[in-house]
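Item description
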Amino acid sequence: MELAIKHRADGTRRVPPMKFALWVGLASISMMFAGFISAYIVRMAAGNWLEFELPSLFMASTMMIIMSSLTLHGAFISFRAQKEMRYKGLLVISVMLGLSFVILQYLGWMDLQSIGIDLKGNPSGAFVYMISGVHVAHVIGGIAVLVVALLHAFGLPFIVTQKRIERLDLTCQYWHYVDVLWVVLFLFLTYYR
């Protein structure tokens, strides 16, 4: 990834405004999920908590989002190295893996429904739906950004410019964030029951 801090002509350093805005947004998202986790822990301690295992599809979706982060990082490196076909191919794979994550999450929710865990039942199930659902919403936002990156990759002439590197870097940072966030949430939901 590109270094976040740029040097000015006078020797001082600054964080690019778009990167700073992204970081502020990611900090806000982190606080929201910290609130969800806190509420989960408090509600769990109150009793009347149904214990159940997450369907294996949640593990499969976790593998998909981790792989998508790896392929997107490879696309970023390939773009900087001016390896056009590898960059485009890895970008397409990243989008497909991101979509697979969303589909597997949905199928995981359907598995929960099939064993009687729904939104209206025990609060433990409602928390799983809420936490994973809000996360999926952020992933869908990331997929939209990846689709824009695909449009740039296939619609613009292949020219490596600083602006395009920075734009792809921001995309990667957001995607890696939702990846790491899901791994943390998945581990929490799996082991803190």
Observations:
- DSSP finds five helices and two strands in the chain.
- The domain at 53-191 is CATH 1.20.120.80 (Four Helix Bundle (Hemerythrin (Met), subunit A)).
